[in-house]
Amino acid sequence: MTTTFPDVSISTERLVLRAFRPADIPAHIEMMNDEMVTAWTSVPYPYTRENAEAWVRRIAPAERTQGRGIVFAVNEFLTQRLVGFVRLHSTDWRVRAAQAAYVTASWARGEGYATESLLAVAQWLFRDQEFERIELRTPANNTASQQVAQNIGCISEGVLRNAWIARTQTEDGGWTDIRTDLIVWSLLPEDLEGAPDHMADAGGYGAFTDRN
Fold it and tell me: Contact, 100 vs 121, CB < 8 A?
């Protein structure tokens, strides 16, 4: 049984999804220090160059090589500017299921990049890798993340009560932890048939193996 994903890149009309590279580190640091990322994820704050170096050079590659999932840096096709990332994790190779997470840079929000990149990954996972389920978990008040899940056709399955620790800013500019619920979403191959027509093929996604 295959227990690791291939080292691939995925392309859409506007985006290229590939492995992180050292050249991505400055943009990755800026992206991860955004207030929305701090609020809804568990990344360190402030997010330092040391954190980014560890992510790009060790943590993200190990996700694939150790069989847990795969991480895609999402870049604009024309500018090659880093707009976010999509991560598949907690992969169950017997069940053919994985969880998905995604982050979008503050400057790139509102352009549909998260929807486009996540949908392209889902199509690749279902069609090329023959997976049967993707699961997403979004904090209860993170409406933007929930909108992305809905945009690609995910079905809400229920709530994990008090299951996540988010962060909120204090009056002095610091951050404090708050507990919140998680909404569980799932996407199956047949659910892609319900995706919006203009997103049905993710702009014509394609995948190719990286050989470098």
Answer: yes
**pLDDT score, position 209:** 67
DSSP state letters, 151-167: HTT-EEEEEEEEEEEEE
Q: CA-to-CA distance for 136 and 152, rounded, in angstroms?
A: 12
The DSSP annotation for 76-131 comes to: ETTT--EEEEEEEEEEETTTTEEEEEEEE-GGGTTSSHHHHHHHHHHHIIIIIS--
pLDDT in tens, 39-58: 999 999 999 999 999 999 99
- Smallest Cα–Cα separation from 32: which of 99, 73, 84, 81? 84
For residues 76 and 15, the answer to whether their CB atoms sit within 8 Å is: yes
- pLDDT > 80? residue 25: yes
For residue 19, the one-letter residue type is A
